[in-house]
Amino acid sequence: MKCCIGSFRSIPANTDSPVRSHPTLFPAVALLALAIPALTNIAAPVRVAAQEPMGMYAGPTVLRAARLLDVETGEMHRDAVIVVEDGLITAVNPASAPDVMHDMDLGDVTLLPGFIDTHTHLGGQISATSFTDAVTRTEAYEAFNAVKYGGITVRAGFTTVRDFGGDVTVELGRAVERGDIVAPRIIPSRNSLGITGGHCDVTGYAPGIREGGPEEGIADGPWEVVEAVRYQIKHGAQVIKTCATAGVLSMEGPVGAQQYTLEELTAMVEEAARHGMRVAAHAHGPDGILAAVQAGVASIEHGSILTDEIMDLMIEKGTYLVPTSHLVDRIALDQLPPLVRAKAEEIMPLARESLGRAIERGVPIAFGTDAAVLPHGENAGEFAVYVQMGMSELDALRSATIHAADLLDTPDRGRLAEGMLADIIAVPGNPLDDIEVTKDVRFVMQGGRVIKHVVGGRDMHSMGR
Description:
The chain has 465 residues and is of the alpha/beta class. The protein has 14 helices and 16 strands.
């Protein structure tokens, strides 16, 4: 996986399961399966019936809560009711709620659409070994990480992410859609596109070590770029990620230097568009940002140095800024090599300043954290940064709902309305009064499946995790 301000790489995994071949474990599992029905008959039945899979109820479910926020209008509804069936919202505040088996009163909470983080790296977490993992770890390591961090992320209220993480999160997204894994829905990029020796390449090693070509996303010149785009899409990419400039968490040169030319970026955007896909451009310096916006990318990741010219063009073209700003407060600087730390300390204050100016000017903003550079599960800390920099609480929430859904071209989520995916979360209090409550998610439903429900301080759906 290649991190937007750093680099983590992927290597093929073994999918053989030890359970399938273990001579004694399989019979034990079978005996346990036979024992469970008998055990469940000992106690009197409770209101929640058997679920397939865990947390998914047969038939409609009614959710009740003290409040529901309509993120489009900003209206806060009292004594809210949502009806869910077959993974979709079938009614919001109906005149009368149906009489159903599964009627959940969540109490003094506010119902919100599941949050969307448009910039994550579920396969890794920044550490002292991040800069050697590319040559010492396998893709299996990333796969285990992705399952772990995916579970943490969805329980933090983020039911969809756009992830830049190689084959691992392509497959994780498919597993989520099958219902096999508890993690966010994933819009994956597969391998990020970058120039030879650039931020999206693996740098800092001797010749011949972890060299890459278009299949790995390393492409020079318009035709190699087109080839790289086609290969990522062939193998599961739903968005194209590129490094338009140099970055922080890599061993190459000045942090904001332009890397792809306008011609190369235009070829990339046009080829992606032929396949109905969009391009996200990591970009710190103004020359690379401007070229990426001119080429027609859908989003600028980080956008550390924004000029008036760039912001005007972003507003004109509807290009989103994905700020990834909370990492400024949470990045583990002591884990970074001296060269990398120096780049981080140079660019982060400029990025925070640009965010404030972008908010004031009205640049479109979609929520994104670069999770992996900050700890997974702390994604909601990004909201408070936006508010501190001048955004209203409502617009901060919109950045992770309707605006993020617009950027990802996923109109089936980001709102609580009839026909939308039943991706629903609940927070205590009123987030329009205190955005910090977004860090305390009490309830998570994804596609009608209850993933988290905190009662009396205990998550009733944690499965011991």
